Amino acid sequence: MLLLSLRFISYHLPLASLAGIAQIIFLPSPWAGLLCLLALSWLTPLYALGLSLGVISASLSAAALGAPAAAWRQGVYGFNGALVGLVLQLYFGWSPLLPWVQILAAALVTFIQLGLNAYRPLPIFTSPFILLTWLVLLLPLGLPEAAPLPAAASWLAGILLGISQVFFVASPLMALLLLGLLGWQHWRLPLYALLASCLGAGIATLLEVNPAQISQGLAGYNPVLAALAVQSLGPGWTILAIVLAALGSAWGLQQSWPMLTSPFVISSWLVLLSYHGWRYWQQGRS
């Protein structure tokens, strides 16, 4: 039993946790997760720490709660916890209490995910992360606020940073790494990501969103995620998801609302429902 436990801690848990990081961009690859973690560690070590605490806590909790083994190994039960740990580090400055909040929140988000999986008519995506993070942000925890991030240089830079903001950082290095990882999976994926970020920035500009927010890539990351989530349905449905996510992102930025990844989730759900409804109607006609 001890050997099994040591193997779990030294082999299975690290691989599942790294795969959970890569699942943020829909890649079930521990190697992709490792590269993302190393890049984040070089850019912002505290973000990498929060991400690591979250994904390890979520993966451990999922294993303890009896999550399906195959999905667990692919990181399906790690990415929501990873995002919780990362975003709490983004919103709050360092304090001795914060790591414990990150660990507990990531464990709770796994419980929510397992509960929603039992009744889901559609993929739940990052909805557990959104719900749990909104709840934590409403609690009077007394944590210090994080310092604001500097603005990017230009609107064009914002297109590239819209890809890196999938990990809530404004970094051309991270953006290029993510594009490379997506291209390794399939040549079409980085093209969709660039198109999504470009449309997100363009729609936000037309709707008169603050240019500083656009230049930081904040209008691009939800369209990027929506494109990656539904790209298997074909170009038309993918572009529809991108536009819907871009409109939701623009609205959220105008309202100064912590939208997180909610525009991506809602737009993807709408497109999936429309797609299945259209297929059902097509089958009824034939």
TrEMBL record:
Cellular compartment(s)? Cell membrane
Write the protein's name: Urea transporter
> Which Gene3D superfamilies does its entry note?
Ammonium transporter AmtB like domains
Q: Which domain of life is it from?
A: Bacteria
Q: How does it sit in the membrane?
A: Multi-pass membrane protein
Spell out where the chain crosses the membrane.
12-40, 46-65, 124-143, 155-182, 189-207, 227-247, 259-278
Task: Write the record's keywords in alphabetical order, separated by commas.
Answer: Cell membrane, Membrane, Transmembrane, Transmembrane helix
Keyword flag ATP-binding: no
Naturally occurring in which organism (per UniProt)? Balneatrix alpica
Entry's family note: Belongs to the urea transporter family.
Just give the chief location class: membrane
What the entry lists under Pfam families is as follows:
UT
